Amino acid sequence: MIYERVYEKYSLKPLRAVLLIAAIVGDIAAVILFFSALADHVLFAAAAALAAIDFALRRISLKTVYSYRYVLSEKGVEIYYDIIGKSRLVLTLEKGVKLTPAQENSAGKRLYGDSSAMLFAAEKDGKEYIVSLDEFMYSVLEVDN
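Now predict its structure.
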């Protein structure tokens, strides 16, 4: 049985659109500068710098829209950080591990998007995390306690 819950963080989507528009305008300017650069070396350097800035804008825009994916499987709950095209395992909550209830303003990295779910504090490698488990995930983890 695999049960999955996704909390999307799309609040910065307008910023992402602005960054991508700026990158496209920069690409057009870099192409124009590149053809003008055949006459002057300074324009070639400007085109290269503009292309590097456009690349940086695109990389930043990828980080503005992300989600946390909670996957409940046989071994417990795995929490993934998903950005466009990539997924990284952040935390694993194993069955039978005691979970500490937490408040929304508790210290620790927040790995949730839905504050209506139950919040718990978890620790991994000395780092504190605040996670949100719905009632089904919590009941499955609690069975072995």
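The chain is about 40% helix and 35% strand.
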